[in-house]
Write a structure and sequence with these properties.
By secondary structure, the protein is mostly helical. It folds into two domains: about 1-125, no CATH class; about 165-270, no CATH class. About 45% of the residues lie in helices and about 0% in strands. It is built from 13 helices and no strands. It has helices spanning about 1-15, 25-35, 40, 55-60, 80-85, 100-115, 145-155, 165-180, 185-190, 200-205, 210-225, 240-250, 260-270. The radius of gyration is 26 Å and the shape is extended. It starts with a helix and ends in a 13-residue tail after the last helix. It binds heme C.
Length: about 280
Amino acid sequence: MWVVLSATVALRSAESNPAPGKIDYGRDVRPILSKNCLPCHGPDEKNRQVGLRLDLREVAVADRGGYRVIVPGRSSGSRLVERITHPTLPMPPAATGKKLTADEIELLKKWIDQGASYAGHWAFERPVRPPLPEVKAKSWPKNEIDYFVLARREAEGMSPSPETDSCTLIRRVYLDLIGIPPTPEQVDAFVKDEEPGAYERVVVELLNSPRYGERWARVWLDLARYADSQGYEQDNLRTIWPYRDWVIRPLCTSGETPTSRARVCQWRGCGRCRPARMSAA
Ligand code: HEC
């Protein structure tokens, strides 16, 4: 879930937005540097200019004979800021046709003032549970993730929509989890169920349904361009359904292969990890 959250935030920061309170290197700074600076101040040795790397903190903050490109905590003393705001010798150089926006310049200054901390790519960082953000509508959140959603909404001056009615809710949860709408009987049963935990029970039931595996495997199978038949021209059959089932099964709670192992196998793509058993069912 944190992955989903941070990906959403990263997308948002691609728009022109005023600098957020606490600058995050991976989310806010790296995209600016890699787009505008790293071609000449990055890992590529051949194109590297004046021996300056901005992707490595130890190089960026190093003494360069009486001055530093980044002075952590002090943007005003940092050569980087001097150059990105320079009237005649701006960085990136005018010849590149690139130019930092005022928001980007503010963000880089703020990042340096906050200590210019670097971080590896989020996918390789050990996840750390962040503290819950402060929210005004304290009674709204039901779980931790709600705090983050609400804090962001409050920051944008938005308030949550009212809770929906039971019919709409159950339809949504069915479509989300298994991709199929509920039958009228299932809707009725849910609407009439006044016991506490009715919603949670539906969610668990759907998570345990084989339809859940089918619905979510579809995302992966689409990426892998899977189809039961050849499609083109004569639409001949092809018998690669064991692969299809192998993707579906670990997503079902009753599956034989733990999901994480299946994912690793997918990424490796070496064909060595076969499912324990491929039934013809
Ligand atoms: C097309 C290549 C290119 C790009 C892109 C580029 N630079 Fe440079 N940069 C240079 C060159 C060449 C120099 C050395 C000449 C100069 O100082 O103007 C330099 C010098 C610098 C210096 C001065 C280093 C010193 O020791 O005085 C800083 C700071 C700097 N760049 C920061 C940046 C930043 C920040 C970005 C992105 C916002 C950036 N550069 C983008 C080519 C580039």
